[in-house]
Specification:
Layout (H helix, E strand, L loop, with lengths): L16 E14 L2 E8 L2 E7 L4 H9 L5 E10 L14 E12 L16 H6 L1 H4 L3 H23 L3 E2 L17 E3 L7 E3 L5 H9 L4 E9 L11 E10 L3 H20 L8 E3 H8 L12 E3 L1 H4 L5 H8 L3 E8 L7 H12 L7 E5 L9 E2 L3 H4 L1 H11 L6 E8 H18 L9 E5 L4 E3 L5 E3 L11 H6 L8 E6 L2 E8 L4 H10 L4 H16 L5 E7 H9 L29 H6 L11
Parallel strand pairs: 3-5, 6-9, 11-17
Antiparallel strand pairs: 1-2, 1-4, 2-3, 4-5, 7-8, 9-10, 10-22, 12-13, 13-16, 14-15, 14-16, 17-20, 18-19, 20-21, 21-22
Helix pairs in contact: 4-17, 10-13, 15-16
This protein binds aspartic acid.
């Protein structure tokens, strides 16, 4: 139907006759001459119809935005002075000879030929129209380039692309499962995979040695953050390999993608133990573009009367941390109130602060509602420890360590972005030496990564002190976002059972849920490990989008629904009966 894409017709084709197809992006009537900008995937081309070609002129006159057309015409140079340097086709225009309307279009729900603010619900409802816009075309093409790069890279490094099931059993990655009822085994359910974790490990037992998959994963989580119920992982596993090699290969892959697709050299990836990341940044995914750090001051505040500080300072599970913000003394009362509200999301009960106005006047040069509670001496010692300068503000968090880390860690990032304190554009890193487990609110233990992660110690040592045991896990972090995580795995049956025991999974439940894994570990499982990257997040960071929804063709809303297809949908009773399901009346809260 066409000889060229619209966006590809350059001055190289001057005087040639071309045929192209696309959508009418814009139509203008310039005193008896009709101009059409016609758009396809490769870009726009300008077409001119003059009244001499009567039939074509009349058709061109009748088309409207987003009509689908096929046009034949002659390429000619644009008149001097009307070139557009910003367009690939900006030096030429087409003198239209023939135009066929291949399809009409109703008035678009939002204009596509100019920027106009459109609510996300409208965009998602008409996603197929939204995807016609430049940014979305760019994002999805960019995504394609990155996945192609990844496939080539992994192929060259000996990784085999192998698919794993979507209808499967639960894979514990810490979220709720999406369940699918079985018609042939009524009363039983498949779970959609939270990750291909166990299958990729079994492929190592089978001797495939190096595996990858660009895999859909499903997690039924509350979508408070920028998450999707289904998302894509670059899932990798390899045998006879240690953490160094896995980190080297995957770091090489990410560096290559940035170099080739963005021309960015990510440089070295510093490594930081989990404990250091928590102490200095209050986060296991520190944003190292921001120079600020949390500083412990509990030792100075243990003996004061003021319980808000003294309590957590004395509590072994408490923390009192200070955050110095350069230039922050300019923050208004209202802004500080807003940051106080912000940290309350993370459970902080308040946000104490000290402004440094004139340090040369000692404590009199400071401004704060809390100096009278913590004492002048302590205040000055804190100022010294933080090495403050005039114009700084110091914020404090005092609570359980978990709350202080989350609240002040998040405040650090927010202030870094709000006050534009970023020191560089890209800050990649590895976080290593994660603990194996963390304590749950009911006093039990849960795996920090997943229960198949190898510990750095023997089963006996693990049993003796599970809370302090470290794992052989590693996370790649970029700009405060966890890009990927992985670990060396347990390949020894006894070790796997020890971990299950620590997690309070009875022998019976072990057999029921993971019997196939425990069996497989008996039949010569090689040492192995791997990692999975979040593809959506990677692309989001690379294109500079605000949300992963901007890099997914058909994403779900924050409430895990698709407003275009209206999924999830109601199912007829007949279909429910087939799978042995009867609905309960809706619970009213
Ligand atoms: N399965 C893990 C995850 O989805 C990644 C890995 O350990 O390779 O987080």
């Amino acid at each position: 139907m066409r000889s060229h894409y619209c966006g590809d017709i350059t001055e190289a084709y001057i005087d040639q006759t071309v045929t192209f197809c696309g959508w009418v992006h814009r139509r203008r009537d310039h005193g008896g001459v009709i101009f059409l900008d016609v758009r396809d995937r490769e870009g726009l081309v300008q077409v001119v119809f003059d009244p001499d070609t009567v039939e074509a002129f009349n058709t061109a006159d009748s088309v409207r935005s987003e009509f689908v057309v096929q046009i034949t015409g002659r390429v000619r140079a644009r008149p001097a002075g009307s070139e557009n340097e910003n367009m690939n086709t900006g030096k030429i225009e087409i003198l239209g000879k023939e135009i066929a309307v291949l399809n009409k279009a109703a008035t678009p729900p939002f204009p596509l030929d100019e920027y106009s603010p459109v609510g996300e619900d409208v965009r998602l409802h008409y996603r197929y129209m939204d995807l016609r816009r430049d940014e979305m075309q760019h994002n999805l093409r960019f995504r394609h380039k990155v996945t192609t790069h990844i496939r080539n890279f992994l192929d060259q490094n000996g990784f085999l692309d192998i698919e794993t099931p979507i209808l499967t059993r639960a894979t514990p990655e810490g979220a709720r499962d999406y369940l699918v009822p079985s018609r042939t085994h009524q009363g039983s359910f498949f779970a959609l995979p939270q990750s291909p974790q166990l299958f990729k490990q079994l492929l190592m037992v089978s001797g495939f040695d190096r595996y990858y998959q660009i895999a859909k994963c499903f997690r039924d989580e509350d979508l408070r953050a920028d998450r999707q119920p289904e998302f894509t992982q670059i899932d990798i596993e390899a045998s006879f390999i240690d953490e160094e090699q896995i980190m080297e290969i995957t770091q090489g892959m990410i560096k290559g993608i940035f170099k080739e697709q963005l021309g960015v050299d990510l440089g070295d990836f510093p490594r930081m133990p989990y404990s250091e990341a928590m102490t200095r940044f209050g986060s296991d995914k520190p944003d190292l573009r921001i120079p600020m750090e949390l500083v412990d001051v509990a030792d100075l505040l243990q003996d004061i009367e003021f319980k808000v500080f003294a309590g957590p300072a004395k509590d072994p599970k408490g923390r009192v941390a200070a955050l110095k913000v350069p230039g922050g003394a300019e923050l208004s009362r209202k802004q500080i109130d807003e940051y106080t509200k912000y940290v309350s999301i993370y459970g902080a009960k308040g946000l104490a602060w000290i402004k440094v106005n004139e340090l040369e006047n000692g404590v009199n040069g400071l401004q704060s509602p809390i100096i009278k509670f913590i004492g002048e001496d302590n205040t000055m010692k804190i100022m010294e420890r933080l090495d403050v300068k005039n114009g700084d503000i110091v914020f404090f968090g005092a609570d359980k360590a978990k709350i202080v880390n989350e609240a002040i860690g998040a405040l650090r990032v927010k202030l870094g972005l709000d006050l534009n304190l970023l020191e560089k554009e890209w800050a990649p890193m590895w976080v290593v030496d994660f603990p194996m487990f963390e304590e749950t609110s009911d006093g039990g233990l849960t795996a920090i990564h997943h229960p198949f992660t190898a510990p750095s110690c023997s089963p006996e040592e693990l049993k003796a002190d599970p809370v302090n045991a470290l794992s052989r896990a590693y996370d790649m972090v970029l700009n405060g976002v966890e890009l990927g995580g992985g670990s060396l795995r347990i390949h020894d049956q006894q070790m796997q059972q020890t971990v299950f025991e620590i997690l309070n999974i009875s022998e019976e439940e072990q057999q029921e849920k993971f019997g196939f894994l425990l069996d497989a570990l008996k039949f010569g499982a090689p040492p192995h490990g791997g990692l999975a990257f979040g593809l959506d997040r990677l692309i989001m960071l690379m294109v500079g989008a605000d949300s992963i929804r901007e890099v997914i063709a058909f994403p779900k809303t924050q409430s895990a629904a698709c407003v275009m297809t209206d999924a999830p949908g109601v199912v007829e009773n007949k279909n429910l009966r087939e799978v042995g399901i009867q609905l309960r009346p809706k619970e009213t809260k």
